[in-house]
Amino acid sequence: MTVCVAAYSQSKKAFVCAVDEMISATDISADSLAIKFSGIGSNWVCMFSAADLSPVRPIIASVRQAMNPAHVQETVTEVIAAFKAAFEAEKRKKIEATVLPPGITLEEFYRVGLRQFGPDIFARTYNLIETVEVEVSFLVCGFSEGRPCLFTFSDPGIEKNYDLVGFWAIGSGTNSAIGSLFNLKGVALQHRAIEEIVYRVCEAKFYAESALGVGKATSAFMLESSGERYMLEAVPPIRTIWENNSSRPLPAGAVEAVRQSLKRPSTQGS
Q1: Domain spanning 4-98+135-262 has what CATH number?
Q2: Is the pTM of this model over 0.85?
C-alpha cells in the first residue's frame, strides 16, 4: 500500500525518486509516518512497498551487510544475490514461526518430516509451506561498474529489470504512476532535462495518490553516479504548480468531433 517511483536522467547521470510516507494497517492508516527508502552500499538505493512491514528492516540489514566486505564490487549481480539471500532467510523464518511445529527447522522438516510426521501431515504441512509469502516488494536503483541499473525484487525471489525503459514504480499506486510516465509524448523521459524528470517523477507520485493506501506526504531524492544521495526539498512548490495546472480542458475541436459521433445514421428506406 504505497507508491515508489524512480527514473533515470542520462544528462545528470542520476536517478530521481519519489515515495509516499503513509503506513496502512487493516483498518487504519496515517500519513507522514515512514521513510520508505534506504541506501545500500555506496552506489545503490532501495524503496519498498509492503503488506507486512516486519521483514523490511531485516532484509535491508542483510543486504547492507552483504555489501560491506572489501571484495564486494557492488555489481548488479551481487546486489540481486544479496536480495535473494535476504528473502530466503525471511521466508524460512516466517515458515518456522507460522507453519512448522515448535523447535523444527525447515531443513529438518524436509530431511526427516516424512518419517517423523507421516505422509498425511507431511503433505498438508508442505502445502502450507508453499503458500507462505514475504509480502514486501523493493524498487532498487543504482550503478553497477558505472552503468545505471533499475529493477524490482519481490517474493518468491524474482527480480525484473527496467534498465531499458529507464523508469518504473511499485505499490498500489503503480498503474497511475507508470501510466502518467508512459503517456508522455516525444523524447524518452531519460533523455529529457533533469528539471523535467524531477517534475515528472513528482507528478507521477501525485497522480498515484488516487490509489488506496498512497499518502499525500512525499519524499523525493536523487542518487548520482558518484554515489552521492540527497533529498529534494522543493516538493511543495512542485505540487502547487501541478495542482494549478492539472485540470484537463477540452481541446479545440473536441466538442464538434463528439457531436459528429453522436449523430445517428439515416434510417431512410428501412
Answers
A1: 3.60.20.10
A2: yes
